[in-house]
Amino acid sequence: MDKFKSVDFMLWATLMLILAITATCGGPGPLIPAHFKGGAMKVPHFNGADYVPDRDDRRLTGQLKRVFEVMKDGKWRTLDAIEAATGDHAPSISAQLRHLRKARFGGHTVNRRYLGEGLYEYQLITKSGGEI
Asked: Whole-model pTM above 0.70?
């Protein structure tokens, strides 16, 4: 009898874990992750251990677009100069510059050169089409 109780508990615990994990996906139902809406898989633009699409997508997309718009002219800029132009903080700008290198964000070239005393400046060279 105790054996069945422990099996029942393990099944219950496993089900609770699955429900907790899938509920954090923001999907339309407890067992349907958000990226499976409408039957077709939608690859999330952003990702990460703490990424929650409903909470983060709008903010991160806005940051990415602002950084791209400032940098697409190909001029060299420091993080401080980009911060002054976008209003975004340097760590966020740095993250968005890394994203712009990734294929899913356009696979653009982001050059970096050292100015001295720990200061770098960055240049974005857009791929043909110049889109994110």
From this structure: no
